[in-house]
Inverse folding.
């Protein structure tokens, strides 16, 4: 799976939790919580959904990397490599 | 009725052994201190202004300058990007003087309402204290609220001025601005290069033209100072009015329940958008002359442990949701860290489960001390103290000066239940300085909170044979998520604005981290079919209006909802069925759900 596939998957899971999120024009380096108005419960739900979908363990120690779209994609890519 | 077997005191009590080298607790002997306490004596710890005047901001800031603390750090701000900024008491006095002068120059008058909608940035703290100096009323809003809750609160509070940031304005205020005719001034803390739309002022430019010469307004102790919104089961949110005299309670409860000493480095993780973040995230730490940490970032396990370690935090006040997330992350994450300066840990927001208390004792070598209070009480009412044994799961004992009781409340007749372990409503005898003085423009709801000399809290609780209080549940349908009250009516009202939704019933369902999360049941208007798309559309619709903190996380459809004869949706029944609990008295049920 390449970065584009993973980006699509992450965006889909964001939209499952926050269907109102406007992902067009999202800066991949911006904190998702600020850009999309997500709270910590949303972030946990997104991480759980990605874990279930991709089988990747995302320890809470790495939750910090998930605050940007780019960080999330890169983490998943390295785990799946 | 007796408390369920095992609910009270299932876990072994945690005995206190105060190490000989450690700082002596402010409250050394609970019984002795409670007997000796008087509110007049507590008032004497503050300086006051001439002729019996009292101003929260003077007690929090200016008086320290007369005691040689001008160079002491009042606020240590940790930005999201990892930078650090110290604000001394002297600097804070100057900044808040300038802000007060600015408000006055804008033509605002004492008593006017100044709102904030900000993250945890220095401007928020300066605005809060500057507003109080100017004799105006400060009302902080939580920045995760969506436009609807914000609008409702600005209207009820009759906001004359709002301080916010450019992104928050764009996302949450711009769309509602023309519905707020009383809002005269909007101050933007980060206006950027572009020209601001009409009616907005860039705060930095205004401040640069303003002198820091201001004489703190000599407010009467009974003058309105703070407006905090809280949610009930029905109707719009209520604006609880607090007065300057509340500072007496903030100050002394900070000493008793948080054990604040002058040399403490204190970290309250609560956002000032909620009452905890104001009473104990601004006022009490400053009146007690501590150095307080403000952490802009949201919760993150390692970042939080970094703050505790690197900033040498000695007193820490946080919330059960965060503690449970730390617990889930595991004790290992504390390995190799030096937290030797940490002396006292406290928790508020909802009952801290006994497992978390026991875990904290193992992980940190000291337990979290749970305490209990409400927006309406203005300050901590019941607490576990540094010098008192902790019974894991109990909220502790009433503060000195506070009389709490378990009462049977039936149609306005209140009887105190004298037997231990009987479930009843938690009530407090009125007369402490930080009790709310009104719900703004809502005298009926205000009066309903009081019977005789008792303030009725709406919480069900028991008191055990040793005098410890234990939370049992809410007496109403209010939802408690991440320690914050959410009124089901506010959520339902928003959902039925969607053209597809005919009716909505909203309840809280248990969640291991958040306490409760919001769940909605809806019925659809004809022409609408339930589908995954519609479910998501409704979730997005509600989130956009209410914000993530208030909007439902789950929505289910029903053909009809259970209702009483008068047409009220029986949320209690929805909840009992969701959780598989007994349905209780359903004699008022007229039409059942299907």
């Amino acid at each position: 799976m390449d970065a584009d596939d993973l980006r699509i998957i992450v965006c889909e899971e964001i939209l499952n939790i926050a269907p109102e999120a406007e992902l067009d024009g999202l800066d991949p380096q911006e904190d998702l919580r600020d850009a999309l108005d997500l709270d910590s419960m949303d972030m946990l739900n997104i991480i759980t959904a990605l874990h279930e979908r991709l089988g990747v363990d995302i320890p809470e120690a790495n939750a910090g990397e998930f605050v940007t779209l780019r960080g999330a994609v890169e983490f998943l890519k390295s785990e799946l490599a | 009725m007796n408390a369920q077997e095992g609910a009270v005191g299932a876990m072994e009590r945690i005995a206190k052994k105060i190490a000989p080298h450690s700082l002596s607790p402010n409250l050394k002997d609970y019984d002795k201190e409670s007997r000796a306490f008087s509110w007049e004596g507590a008032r004497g710890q503050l300086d006051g202004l001439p002729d019996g005047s009292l101003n929260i901001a003077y007690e929090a800031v200016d008086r320290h300058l007369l005691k040689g603390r001008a160079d002491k750090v009042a606020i240590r701000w940790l930005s999201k990007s990892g930078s650090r900024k110290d604000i001394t008491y002297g600097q804070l006095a100057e900044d808040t003087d300038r802000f007060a002068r600015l408000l006055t120059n804008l033509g605002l008058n004492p008593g006017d309402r100044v709102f904030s909608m900000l993250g945890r940035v220095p401007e928020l703290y300066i605005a809060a204290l500057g507003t109080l100096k100017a004799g105006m009323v400060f009302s902080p809003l939580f920045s995760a609220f969506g436009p609807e809750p914000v609008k409702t609160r600005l209207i009820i509070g009759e906001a004359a001025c709002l301080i916010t940031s450019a992104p928050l304005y764009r996302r949450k205020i711009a769309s509602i601005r023309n519905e707020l005719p009383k809002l005269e001034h909007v101050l933007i803390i980060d206006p950027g290069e572009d020209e601001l739309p009409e009616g907005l002022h860039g705060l930095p430019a205004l401040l640069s033209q303003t002198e820091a010469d201001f004489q703190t307004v000599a407010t009467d102790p009974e003058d309105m100072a703070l407006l905090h919104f809280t949610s009930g089961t029905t109707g719009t949110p209520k604006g609880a009015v607090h007065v300057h005299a509340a500072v007496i309670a903030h100050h002394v409860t900070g000493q008793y329940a948080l054990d604040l000493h002058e040399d403490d480095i204190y970290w309250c993780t609560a956002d000032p958008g909620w009452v905890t973040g104001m009473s104990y995230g601004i006022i009490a730490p400053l009146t007690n002359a501590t150095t307080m940490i403000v952490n802009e970032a949201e919760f993150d396990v390692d970042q939080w442990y970094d703050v505790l370690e690197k900033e040498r935090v000695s007193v820490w006040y946080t919330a059960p949701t965060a503690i449970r997330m730390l617990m889930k992350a595991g004790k290992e994450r504390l390995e190799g860290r030096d937290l030797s300066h940490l002396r006292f840990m406290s928790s508020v927001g909802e009952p801290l489960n006994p497992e978390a208390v026991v875990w904290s004792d193992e992980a940190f070598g000291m337990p979290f001390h749970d305490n209990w209070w409400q927006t309406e009480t203005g300050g901590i009412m019941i607490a576990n103290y540094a010098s008192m044994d902790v019974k894991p799961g109990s909220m502790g004992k009433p503060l000195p000066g506070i009389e709490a009781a378990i009462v049977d409340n039936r149609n306005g007749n209140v009887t105190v239940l004298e037997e231990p372990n009987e479930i009843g409503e938690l009530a407090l005898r009125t007369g402490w300085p930080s009790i709310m003085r009104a719900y703004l423009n809502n005298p009926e709801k205000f009066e309903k909170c009081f019977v005789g000399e008792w303030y009725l809290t709406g919480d069900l609780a028991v008191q055990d044979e040793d005098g410890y209080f234990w939370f049992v549940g809410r007496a109403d349908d209010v939802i408690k998520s991440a320690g914050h009250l959410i009124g089901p009516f506010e959520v339902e009202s928003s959902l039925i604005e969607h053209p597809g939704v005919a009716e909505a019933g909203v309840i809280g369902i248990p969640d291991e981290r958040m306490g409760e999360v919001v769940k909605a049941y809806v019925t659809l208007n004809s022409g609408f079919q339930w589908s995954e798309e519609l479910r998501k559309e409704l979730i997005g619709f509600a989130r956009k209006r209410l914000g993530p903190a208030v909007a439902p996380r789950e929505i289910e459809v029903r053909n009809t909802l259970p209702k009483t004869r008068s047409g009220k949706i029986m949320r209690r029944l929805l909840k009992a069925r969701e959780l598989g609990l007994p349905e209780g008295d359903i004699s008022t049920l007229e039409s059942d759900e299907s």
Observations:
- Residues 1-6 of chain B have pLDDT under 50 and may be disordered.
- The longest helix of chain B spans residues 89-105.
- The domain at 30-396+436-455 of chain B is CATH 3.40.50.12780 (Rossmann fold).
- Chain B touches chain A at residues 80, 144, 146, 167, 171, 298-303, 325, 328-329, 333, 482, 513-514, 517, 536-537, 539-541, 543-544, 547-549, 553 (CB under 8 Å).
